[in-house]
Amino acid sequence: MDLLDNAENINKLLARYGVKFGIYKNNTFQEQLFPFDAIPRVIEKEEFSYLEKGLKQRVKALNLFLKDIYHKKRIVKDQVIPKDFIFASSGYMPECEEIDPVKDIYTHISGIDLVKGKDGNWYVLEDNLRVPSGASYPMIARELCRRSSPLTFQKNQIEDNRNYANLLRKVLDYVNVEGHTAILTPGRYNAAYFEHSYLAEQTGAHLVNGHELIVEDEKLYFVDYRGKKERIGALYRRISDEYLDPMHFNPESLIGIPHIFDVYRKGNVALLNAPGNGIADDKGIYYFVPKMIQYYLKEEPILHNAPTYLPFYKEDMKYVLENFDRLVLKDVAEAGGYGVVFGDKMTKQQKEDFIGLLKNEPRRFIAQEVIDFQDLDIQEGMEVVARKADLRAFVLMAEEPFVWKSGLTRFSRNPDSFIVNSSQGGGFKDTWVLSH
Amino acid sequence: MQELQFSYRMRLDFSEPAAKHQFTLRMFPKTDARQQIMECEVKLEPECNLSKGEDTFGNRYLYGEISQEHTCFSVEVFGRAAVDRKDVFLWREDEINRYRYPSRYTKTGEKLRTYFAKVKKESGKTGYAFAKDLMDQLYRDIQYRQGVTTISTTAEEALIQKQGVCQDYAHIMIALCRLEGIAARYVVGMMLGEGYSHAWVEVCTDGVWHGIDPTNRRLVDENYIKISHGRDYQDCIVNRGVFLGGGIQTQTVKVEVKQIERGA
Fold it and tell me: What is the mean pLDDT of each run of 10 residues along chain B (264 residues)?
């Protein structure tokens, strides 16, 4: 297949286009290429339509959950979720209480991480509802692959994934209250800067940093280099809540926009995604997502979670202690593959310390069965080797949620690792969804 | 009940001109069951347009922007208040949930946990009685000292040092109350006399908010005027600002609270 022969060229082009992933660790910033593997992940049409149904259902429920948590909190009053899991979570932001985001949408862009087990079932591992990144990588990779090997795409019936920008634009326009649309980036040292600039270019939105936006008369404006002001009605902000507005959150934020939160609260700008979403992608809340689906939609969940235990519940704690060596334990406050430990990889001392911590702060951890997920083939030099891979599916929400017919497939380059996060140095693949 | 006259002066001097100065001020006492604000005026220099807001904790704030260059920014808030001794009833059950768990400044570490276990064992009480024991104990164990802690010192750090100012006393007290399962919040306000603004604690037990001032080992009475409350210091920052230039900034705060003589 000539696509594979061109793999090296495509990687060179990706490097030239600046497809990079910055990693900030131990106080140093390193930018590394995000290695692309030319063998695509292929998902059959039927299989994808199953995923699609499940993903839409899941995101719908998560969106309803967010509205409920920041208003009536029925799900807590009805004792479906213990209140400790809401109010003790760092993702819960009382500042967002009683705010009505435009058209009641919180989860404009969701990145749902799934794996396919060796048993053939898909499992959801994580919901990313704050600023999930990654859509731009398969977009540009597809573009380059099509150029280097047009025949491949003529012979195979593959859903075109280059429409992501249109889908995103549709969401931005749907919630825009009046004026222009912009993508807010913290700047070129951000891990996902390539993505910010690429999405801006592809959607036709302004790419702006905090200094170019100002608040006046309780509205948000973009000031261009000539000093001309344009009202912004929808802002796809790629900075976290904490840094959004130094007048309301972290007072030391230099990348935020003073008073933007006041504008948002008055309904004078749509922020994508809504502030406060962190409560819904908290690892402790993850356990309750299937229950949310039953509670809000009165439906049975289509997609399954990985089997998860909450040491917070006595019977789960017992199970976790008895099966410690089989399980993976995750700190609910951490993200990006950090704070994840495998029971069987610990020394005796580490294990004792960890169990002490677990007993002290049971709410801080979740335990999961290690899912033996399917390997995907990747090229390594001249060889083809098998590596663990996951899939980040993107769900966008306007009137209804819709699923992008592609996704970011990430793989671990280390043969023994189950952790595929790009911030841990993994690579990516294009995801082909077949159209027949 | 007594009537108080108060003034809160805050002044920011810049060594070089500052411009595009955006600010948010949370320094306006509000009428509640304990205090009635009969008069409250604000003077701001340089003058500018102000917008009003109320945050999720119920604090009122003013915000605005001074675009022209200036070397001094000053705010004066003054007025009259009638203050009572009584506690404030909780009017919405679920509003206390946000005050029951560790926040940025009140995260529990090893030191807080062992200290808590010790005090709890010695006191043996629960609820408001326990909170009062905590106040006594903190007053004995923590030394009031300026300059050893900063605005970013956490409860855990302050307890390790065993020294600090009202902000630190309040944070430690809040962290310990929350360990006991008592909802506790941070309060910024003014106290009878002359000096700086003050911080204390409110704990909610049996549906009532009780004011406790661990720095002075005193239950909050009619000599205290409350300005704002929140989970910890960060929710109550009196003046938040972002500006261009400015060089070195020096902040001066002067608070004055006097009794109004009856018939005067």
Answer: 95 96 96 94 94 94 94 97 83 85 93 96 95 97 96 96 97 97 97 95 93 96 96 96 93 96 65
Cα distances from A246 to residues A250, A259, B54, in angstroms, run 5, 8, 16
Residue A253, token pair as written in the block: 């934020």
- Assigned token pair, B264: 């005067």
Token pair listed for B194: 């002359």
Chain B nearest CA to A405, separation (Å):
40
Q: In sequence order, which residues have a C-beta less than 8 Å from that of residue A215 and are 6 or more positions away?
A: A221, A257, A258, A259, A260, A262, A263, B22
- Cβ of residue B239 closer than 8 Å to a chain A Cβ: no
Task: Please count the other Cβ atoms lying within 10 Å of the Cβ belonging to residue A44.
Answer: 12
A94·B98 Cβ contact <8 A: yes
Compute the nearest-CA separation of B225 from chain A (Å).
Answer: 24
What span, in angstroms and rounded, lies between the C-alpha atoms of A35 and A422?
Answer: 10
Q: Are A223 and A212 in contact (CB under 8 A)?
A: yes
Tens digits of per-residue pLDDT, B103-161? 999 998 899 999 999 999 999 999 999 999 999 999 999 999 999 999 999 999 999 99
- Would you say B201 and B211 are in contact if contact means Cβ atoms under 8 Å apart? yes
The residues facing B200 across adjacent strands are B187
Rounded Cα–Cα distance for residues B230 and B98 (Å): 9
* Contact (CB, 8 A) for B94 and A73: yes
Interchain contact, A87 vs B240, CB within 8 Å:
no
Chain B touched by A170 (CB under 8 Å): no
Task: List the one residue out of B166, B163, B162 whose CA is nearest residue B201.
Answer: B166
Q: Does A120 touch chain B (CB under 8 A)?
A: no
SS3 label, residue A280: coil
Chain-chain contact of B56 with A83 (C-beta, under 8 angstroms):
no
Distances (CA, A) of A227 to A16, A218, A220, B182: 33, 19, 15, 52
- A117 secondary structure, DSSP code: B
Query: What are the angstrom distances between the C-alpha of A254 and each of A28, A247, A401?
Result: 19, 11, 34
d(CA B242, CA B244): 7
CB–CB of A162/A143 below 8 Å? yes
CB pair distance less than 8 Å for A251 and B234: yes
| Cβ-Cβ contacts under 8 Å, A81 against chain B | none
pLDDT on residue A420: 65
pTM of the model: 0.93
Contact A258 B22 (CB under 8 A): yes
User: Is B98's CB within 8 Å of A246's CB?
Assistant: no
Strand ranges for A179-248 from DSSP E: 180-184, 206-208, 213-216, 219-223, 229-237
A247 vs B24, B57, B94: nearest CB: B24
Q: Is A251 on the interface with B (CB under 8 A)?
A: yes
Structure tokens given for A332? 């609910």
Work out the minimum CA distance from A17 to partner chain B, whole angstroms: 35
Block mean pLDDT (10 aa), chain A, length 436: 79 80 60 84 96 98 98 96 92 95 98 94 95 93 90 90 94 98 91 92 96 93 93 97 95 91 96 97 94 98 96 95 93 74 90 90 90 89 89 96 96 75 76 92
User: How many helices, marked H, and strands, marked E, lie in chain B?
Assistant: 4, 16
* Complex prediction ipTM: 0.91
B98 to A88: CB separation less than 8 angstroms, yes or no: no
